[in-house]
């Protein structure tokens, strides 16, 4: 192999020093700073895939995916004090969070990324080189954030916190937008937020989901009759804007399969949507297929429904979900 091709290969892998150290293999949730605790938990069986959202919408986005031994954050647009407090209330210390995965470079998704890694130096930021470049161009943020970056690339899987993770292309007006497919224990959790249309690659991964976090940003009638100026309405409706309730519901209903158990509606607009409208649209389309739809409450009467639908709160922490007991 020529020196040029070898250099190219290394660039596509990202910074190999960080990949080798932090792209962790299957089911490895080790905390290097707590060997005693690790030894005690070697034989402890994890209770399932844990998911929680700390905020979802243009005011700030951040969620956690993993298990009781650790995991990852998806985006970093919520105050770290809020995130840290709610993680610790549920038995997860930040020392167990291996990294932050960024979907795109808008402020409501990256606002606290540097603050988090600067205060938790074991963490790394996982994003493409193009996304990091956009972040540095568009925001007043320390260039030292690059010291914490692990370069990833769309459609090239990597391992982190015991999960196989694949980034895929989405359509939005930011830099190198992406969703993520997380595979663990034979299950697939797919995150698809901030997208004006469902791209072919997003569709491919979303169709495989057992648990799907999908944008349901606006109700078209509320947007059309609302207070937004016309240019902003056009931006929201556009192919690089956001997904409306009907499009999200039509997609899920059309692509439903027996192994799709949960749908989390994310990034609801504060001005052009309500949780009740988003959930009702999704529920009606699924019921039209003859499915029973639960409300995600874990109430006994809801547990045996074919699928659960839950709207992630805009400002507050969601229910702490254990998805695969």
Share in helix: 25-40%
By DSSP (H or I, 4+ residues per run), the number of helices equals: 13
CATH topology: Metallo-beta-lactamase, Chain A
Main sheet overview: 8 strands, mixed
> In which order are the strands of the major sheet placed?
7-8-9-10-11-12-14-13
Measured by DSSP, the beta-strand proportion falls in 15-25%
Overall geometric form: globular
CATH class: Alpha Beta
**How does the helix and strand content classify structurally?**
alpha/beta
> What is the residue-averaged pLDDT?
86
Count every beta strand, where a strand is a DSSP E run of 2 or more residues.
15
Q: How many domains, as an integer?
A: 1
SSE string: HHHEEEHEHHEHEEEEEHEHHHEHEHEE
Structure description:
By secondary structure, this protein is α/β, with parallel strands linked by helices. It has a single domain (12-322), classed as Metallo-beta-lactamase, Chain A, CATH 3.60.15. The protein is built from 13 helices and 15 strands. The protein has helices spanning 3-13, 16-22, 35-41, 80-89, 107-110, 113-119, 129-138, 200-206, 220-225, 230-237, 245-254, 275-287, 300-303, and strands at 50-55, 62-67, 70-74, 97-101, 124-127, 149-151, 158-160, 163-169, 178-184, 187-192, 211-215, 262-266, 293-294, 307-311, 321-322. The strands form 2 sheets. Strands 7-8-9-10-11-12-14-13 form an 8-stranded mixed β-sheet. Strands 6-5-4-3-2-1-15 form a 7-stranded mixed β-sheet, sandwiched between helices. Helix 11 (245-254) packs parallel to helix 12 (275-287). The termini are far apart. The model is unreliable at 1-45 (pLDDT under 50).
């Amino acid at each position: 192999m020529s020196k040029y091709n070898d250099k190219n290969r290394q660039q596509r892998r990202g910074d190999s020093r960080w990949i080798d150290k932090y792209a962790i293999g299957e089911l490895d949730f080790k905390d290097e700073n707590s060997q005693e605790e690790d030894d005690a938990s070697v034989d402890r069986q994890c209770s399932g895939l844990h998911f929680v959202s700390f905020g979802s919408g243009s005011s700030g986005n951040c969620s956690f995916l993993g298990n009781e031994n650790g995991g990852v954050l998806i985006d970093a647009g919520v105050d770290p004090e809020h995130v840290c407090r709610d993680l610790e209330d549920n038995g997860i210390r930040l020392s167990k969070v291996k990294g932050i995965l960024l979907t795109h470079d808008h402020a409501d998704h990256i606002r606290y990324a540097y603050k988090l890694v600067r205060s938790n130096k074991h963490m790394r930021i996982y994003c493409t080189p193009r996304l990091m470049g956009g972040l540095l161009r568009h925001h007043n943020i320390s260039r030292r954030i690059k010291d914490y970056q692990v370069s990833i690339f769309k459609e090239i899987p990597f391992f982190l916190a015991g999960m196989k993770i694949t980034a895929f292309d989405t359509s939005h007006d930011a830099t190198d937008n992406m969703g993520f497919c997380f595979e663990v224990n034979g299950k697939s959790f797919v995150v698809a937020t901030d997208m004006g249309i469902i791209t072919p690659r997003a569709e491919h991964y979303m169709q495989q989901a057992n648990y799907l976090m999908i944008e349901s940003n606006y109700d078209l009638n509320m947007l059309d009759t609302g207070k937004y100026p016309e240019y902003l309405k056009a931006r929201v409706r556009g192919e690089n804007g956001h997904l409306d309730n009907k499009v999200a519901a039509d997609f899920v209903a059309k692509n439903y399969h027996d192994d799709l158990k949960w749908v989390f509606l994310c990034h609801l607009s504060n001005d052009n949507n309500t949780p009740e409208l988003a959930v009702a649209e999704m529920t009606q389309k699924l019921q039209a297929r003859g499915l029973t739809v639960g409300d995600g409450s874990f109430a006994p009467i809801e547990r045996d429904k074919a699928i659960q639908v839950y709207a992630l709160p805009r400002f507050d922490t969601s229910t702490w979900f254990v998805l695969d007991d």
